[in-house]
Amino acid sequence: MGKFYVTTPIFYVNDKPHIGTAYAVIVADILARWHKIKGEDVFFLTGTDEHGEKIEKSAEKMGKSPKEFVDEIAEKFKSTWKELNIEYDKFIRTTDKDHEYAVAFITDLINKKGDIYKGEYEGWYCVPDETFLTDLELKDGRCPACGREVKKMKEENYFFKLSKYQEKLLSLYSNNSSFVIPDFRLREVENRIKEGLHDLDITRKSVKWGIPFELDKSFTIYVWLDALTNYLSGIGWPNNKDFTELWSNSVHVVGKEINWFHSVIWPAFLMSAGIDPPKQVLVHGWWTIDGKKISKSFGNAIDPVDLVKRYSSDALRYALIKEKRIWDDGDFSEESLKARINGELAADLGNLVYRTLTLVEKFEGELEGTPELDSKLKLNKIVEAMDNFDTYLALSIIWDFIKETNKYVTDREPWKLKEKELGNVLYNLLEAIRIIATLLYPFIPHTSNRIFSQLGISASKLEDCKFTEIHSRPRKGEPLFKKV
RNA sequence: GUCGGGGUAGUACAGCGGUAGUACGUCGCCCUCAUGAGGCGAAGGUCGUGAGUUCAAAUCUCACCCCCGACACCA
Question: Which nucleotide is nearest to A23 (CA to C1')?
């Protein structure tokens, strides 16, 4: 049986979940469920990144210990994912003991390889951002990220020999052109590497809230070596010996701002530790809200839980996927969400199921016939699109089939038919709906399950997406979507 | 600044060498099983600007303008 391992970024607990974080998790959930209906053995990992000075300070500001603080926020993330109907297998926290063990372990492997050295950093440091900066990076003498003052620093630090892996990384990309999806993100990273890599600082001296750096206890491990290792510790590395089967089928869903860390730094760490790189990094684009960038502080950072409560998790999931391709940027607006609920979910899909089941309930004959709609189903194209992570295209092709099915109703005018002729049309409609519900399951699982239940059947798999025989007696239920 | 993406119908996008397409919106028609749902049709674009290559350019080349992103802790 095939395996599939999908991860989301682990989210920094200094912030609440918003539409952007929710998006990465929804994409991963859709991929996970897609592989499940393909009959594969799936593992879906998400979690939270909980170390660092910012967390320490935020906790202090709220009069809490860092541990109390991160416990609370981790719960907030978990409950949000529950609202969004996210079916993850494990929620990892970087404060988990087994994760901390794995980080110490990989650090040791990298050190034994001779890739860690003590060096001296001289330059600028932005305290609130915990970031070292070069002269070039400063903007008007200030931190380019936050605009605050920087101070001159001369500090000993530990470095990872990233520069040593320049050629190896480039050959990883040329031997595996789909390592980073989409390809322009691979080129972006490739070009930057060709400009030259410099070694990476991997420790912090001033930060207490972190994993101790075993080589020198006066330091803690800085974010990337800690956070990235979650993808291994999440599936039981280093003690789980058969983690390789999952690992060789792994996909990291990440935002474009952290592509560099996942496509360059992470494989370099792994090469150093003697572990294969993940199979693929899927880089998603960003959302604007009503045309404006998501502001970190407040304002337009829409709460996904609020949207779910006012509409539904399926409506939100559908709208986010139907709005843009994964790697594109796009705009989210409640207006467009409503338009999709009314025009697509309610009118195309909901109404199709409802009108069909009304006809079925009035009909007393046999639900059997000859497949007539099967030629309209472009199953291969859907599978191909999904395998290329083009969820947008896949969903569009499924929707074409829904439209064809509605057209079939108009063309065959079942309200004028009776007996065998009517039974044949209803047979075609019910089988089409069953297949539609199956294909939509990864995207809108709750709705699919409601359709299955109205059809009187249990959930079906991708291999069942063909016209067969009907053995159940469907019963009409509530409309799937109400207009808003 | 360097690198990358983009600029196509009112809006969102696809097409990437051979008579400009899809969805939504707008307008008209048909249907009545259905959630005022469904189906059909029409209007609407000098494809960012300028030059070049070609029998032929949204598509290739060059220059320019504008928008967005990455540049080492923004999902």
Answer: B75
